[in-house]
Design a protein that fits this description.
Order of helices and strands: HHHHHH
Oligomer: single chain
Number of domains: 1
Radius of gyration: 15 Å
């Protein structure tokens, strides 16, 4: 079960760029969750998947004895969901259809991938940590950075 969760049921084995496939799946799933279950359901899913993802990653890393295997993409799902959280909140707060904010969904995806791949500053520091902490924390920080950039773009564009 830990392998299934850590690789998001095999998405992590897709090539090339398993992290991008994991992030794309996460984006689509986030939109569906927000549409079907609203912001509360999305936040509950984020928290529960974070806990299960941490556990699964810890178990999986012990089994294969590798620092940060590319097939582990549950961290991308969590980071991507953090990146889209401001969009999900805006959908809820302004009572919008999730697709009304499509530029935000796309920009959060692109910003997350940029930060996750380039690993600047604190993201790179977190990536150097061992175990599940290092695997998960860099994507959490990349998600936060992407969320901040997406909010900044929205403010600049809409003048909120």
């Amino acid at each position: 079960m830990s392998t299934a969760i850590a690789t998001i049921f095999g998405i992590g084995y897709l090539r090339p760029a398993p992290g991008t496939w994991g992030s794309l799946f996460a984006l689509i799933l986030a939109i569906l969750l927000v549409e079907i279950f609203g912001i509360i359901g999305f936040i509950l899913a984020l928290l529960s998947i974070s806990a299960f993802g941490w556990w699964a990653t810890s178990v999986y890393l012990k089994q294969i004895k590798t620092k940060d295997p590319s097939e582990v993409v549950i961290d991308e799902l969590i980071g991507q969901w953090i990146a889209v959280l401001p969009i999900a909140i805006a959908v809820f707060y302004f009572k919008l259809d999730p697709f009304d904010l499509w530029p935000g969904w796309i920009s959060s995806f692109l910003f997350f991938r940029l930060f996750d791949i380039s690993k600047p500053s604190l993201i790179g520091w977190a990536d150097k940590k061992n175990g599940a902490l290092g695997v998960m924390l860099d994507d959490i920080f990349a998600g936060v950075a992407a969320a901040i950039c997406t909010i900044t773009l929205a403010v600049l564009y809409h003048g909120f």
